[in-house]
């Protein structure tokens, strides 16, 4: 079993993230993870989303599971820590944790299953050995 690196990105809850119950809307947590992965692909793996797009590929969510623990509120600073659980020629699984930085308590955790697609056809394609190597750090 491979142990993959985990990376953390910090952000702050914005006013447009808040729902009618005065905390972050559940859909925003998924946005937080996707934004963190986007940044981490560029800064830590050396193969950004733009590079995949240049090659004619994209990553799409096949499955996602999220467990909500504690709500985030307006102005809260939070961290998103992500890391690969597995990567192979069919796609990858990424786990995540979102923590409120004021108390370091878990707000949500879970995982995403991603598949790589050909942007022209919209069909799944194999992840190359070179891509797997770049992300297997």
UniProtKB/TrEMBL annotation:
UniProt xrefs under InterPro entries: 4-hydroxybenzoyl-CoA_TE, HotDog_dom_sf
Gene3D superfamilies: Hotdog Thioesterase
Single annotated GO MF: fatty acyl-CoA hydrolase activity
Swiss-Prot/TrEMBL keywords: Hydrolase
Similarity annotation: Belongs to the 4-hydroxybenzoyl-CoA thioesterase family.
PANTHER family assigned: 4-HYDROXYBENZOYL-COA THIOESTERASE FAMILY MEMBER, NOVEL THIOESTERASE SUPERFAMILY DOMAIN AND SAPOSIN A-TYPE DOMAIN CONTAINING PROTEIN (0610012H03RIK)
Protein name: Acyl-CoA thioesterase
Organism annotation: Pedobacter aquae
